[in-house]
Design goal:
With 293 residues, the chain is an all-alpha fold. It is built from 13 helices and two strands; from the N terminus they run αββαααααααααααα. The radius of gyration is 23 Å and the shape is globular.
């Protein structure tokens, strides 16, 4: 029999929810509303005067080839980061789920990188792969690889993807491990009795049962790649060389704070917000159909 909580006062439930609602309204909805309003204004760099220009900021954006390049680059980065981080995390979770000696230490060490802030991740990886100071760069040069992400845009993009994926692997690993441990052992044992080999058991039994976890992590990783990679990009490449690592979120920062074009920056943030909402809705509309609950 389920117990139902009964509040003595009708105002008490609203009072308990009020702090969270206040945080959401003040730090999420109010800034979003301000960005929408500012996207229709043309302001000077100091914010002393503004002119209502309707959709001129949006029109200028869609006329700018650099903005479309940033869109394509953002989607490429998001796909590469999500696929690589999810794949490696699943592989590590499968290995950690086995009854091995020292598995608890192994799991703990794999979770630790998630506590590292994105700017710190950028500093760590740029020191390891700096063309003149990095330890790994020296090893690459000994193999005959001409490694210089400060001059080569493709190498800089690969470095950003590598660092961002490494940062997210720990988060994905934690959820994959929990999902693996929630799968009933009797199901896997029944598949083994039927003669299914380990790889076949994984793809026909384990992987479908992990689909809710995979779907959740796919949404989270896409949002992470769109927004939370800003600190890594700013620390490692600052969008360079040239514009080879400028994504949508970094372009909002560079055009608004560094370039002083506040109206265009606000319009970009609104478009970015709409993109993420639409992309998440598409995932829930189509990808969730293949999820097995």
């Amino acid at each position: 029999m389920q117990k139902q909580a009964i509040f003595q006062s009708k105002l008490l439930p609203y009072a308990l929810v009020a702090p969270q609602l206040a945080i959401v309204l003040i730090f999420f909805y109010w800034p979003a509303l301000q960005a929408v309003i500012q996207s229709f204004l043309l302001q000077d760099a100091f914010g002393l005067s503004s002119t209502f220009v309707w959709f001129d900021n949006y029109i200028e954006l869609f006329r700018d080839p650099a903005y479309f390049e940033a869109i394509v680059r953002t989607f490429f980065f998001s796909f590469a980061i999500a696929v690589s981080s999810l794949s490696f995390a699943l592989l590590l979770a499968v290995m950690a789920d086995k009854p091995l000696r020292g598995s608890m230490l192994y799991r703990t060490l794999l979770i630790w990188p998630y506590a590292v802030a994105p700017p710190v991740v950028g500093v760590l990886w740029i020191f390891m792969l700096h063309p003149s100071l990095g330890v790994l760069s020296r090893y690459l040069r000994s193999l005959g690889v001409d490694w210089n992400p400060l001059l080569d845009g493709n190498q800089a993009a690969a470095l950003i993807i590598l660092a961002a994926a490494w940062k997210q692997i720990s988060y994905n690993f934690l959820f994959f491990l929990a999902g693996l441990q929630a799968i009933p052992k009797s199901v896997l044992e029944a598949a083994a009795i039927d003669g299914a080999r380990p790889m076949r058991r994984f793809w026909t039994v384990t992987f479908p049962l992990l689909s809710p976890t995979i779907f959740f992590l796919l949404v989270v990783n896409i949002v992470y790649a769109f927004f939370d990679t800003f600190g890594i990009i700013d620390t490692m490449t600052r969008g360079g060389p040239g514009t080879s690592t400028v994504t949508l979120v970094y372009k909002v920062y560079s055009d608004g704070l560094l370039g002083g074009n506040l109206g265009s920056s606000a319009a970009q943030s609104v478009i970015l917000m709409v993109m993420v909402i639409v992309l998440t809705g598409i995932q829930f509309r189509f990808v969730e159909r293949k999820v097995t609950y």
